[in-house]
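Lecture notes, part 5. Sequence design as translation. It can be helpful to think of inverse folding as translation between two languages: the language of shapes and the language of residues. The source text, in structure tokens, appears below.
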């Protein structure tokens, strides 16, 4: 195909006309898209704050105000300090036994529990604990609550205590 100046001008004129038409539709066309009427419009439900909280809590969400959240963080920090200053008991063999009160809250995972037990010197490795929990298939059966555990307990005893 041979490109001549006439064919080039015709092509440019076509692009100019197409661009002008698109611009005119954009500028002078409807400002909102209209429904064809075949689908139902989305119903927007306006809820009060209390209704939102009730609806979310009924679906399993935990809702906290900023003050409640700060209190929970403060209690968690105090609990962590208590764990660090935990009492050590000596058994008959002279081996040091560490005891701690482990608080499991909603949303914690078995990895979090393993790490907390490792920090409290109850177990050697949080990762090994998590793997054992996963091997048993109970990683989703974590019970919220406060549990007393000690380093003299076997992994099986710890799992039976903390998991359903």
């Amino acid at each position: 195909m041979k490109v001549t100046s006439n064919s080039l001008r015709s092509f440019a004129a076509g692009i100019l006309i197409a661009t002008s038409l698109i611009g005119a539709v954009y500028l002078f066309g409807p400002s909102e898209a209209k429904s064809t009427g075949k689908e139902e419009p989305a119903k927007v439900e306006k809820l009060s704050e209390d209704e939102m909280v009730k609806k979310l809590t009924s679906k399993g969400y935990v809702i906290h105000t900023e003050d409640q959240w700060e209190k929970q963080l403060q209690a968690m920090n105090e609990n962590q300090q208590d764990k660090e200053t935990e009492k050590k008991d000596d058994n008959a063999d002279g081996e040091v036994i560490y005891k701690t009160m482990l608080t499991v809250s909603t949303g914690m995972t078995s990895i979090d529990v393993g790490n907390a037990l490792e920090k409290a010197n109850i177990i050697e490795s949080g990762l090994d604990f998590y793997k054992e929990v996963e091997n048993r298939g109970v990683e989703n059966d974590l019970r919220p609550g406060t549990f007393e555990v000690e380093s003299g307990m076997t992994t099986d005893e710890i799992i039976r205590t903390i998991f359903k």
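The translated text above is only one of many valid answers, since several sequences can fold into similar shapes. Strands lie at 88-90, 96-104, 145-150.
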